[in-house]
Amino acid sequence: MLSKKEKALIAEIWGKLLPVAEDIGSDALLRMFSTFPGTKTYFSHLDISPRSPHLLSHGKKIVLAIAEGAQDISQLAVNLGPLQTLHAYQLRIDPSNFKLFSHCMLVTLACHMGDDFTPLAHAAMDKYLSAFAAMLAEKYR
Questions:
Q1: How far is CA 55 from the centre of its chain?
Q2: pTM here?
Q3: 3-state class of 94 per DSSP?
Q4: What is the mean pLDDT of residues 15-28?
């Protein structure tokens, strides 16, 4: 699915974004909540207003998980096992939300990266985030 060059590019991008993980993650979450209001239902017990501690914390967790997965994409299924179980059996998140978030993350990356978000980077990241979302939804089958 991803070439060696694309895998290296994805790992490089996420490595560069780790210092701003809170900003990227919270921005993508806020974008998802604004665009797809139904996704907020899973966060009704948290303060998800812009720059809130809950939003920043959860956004950072998501970015760290995505970045960790990018380090060895061939082991994505193994690395995401605990998150699959958590989201499917404990949190019972609608798996379609993973695709929605993936799209919001792409838009967020384009905004944050500017000219560095080249067509090649966009295509590679789209493939990776789609695989990440599909892998998270795997336990629902």
A1: 14
A2: 0.88
A3: coil
A4: 96
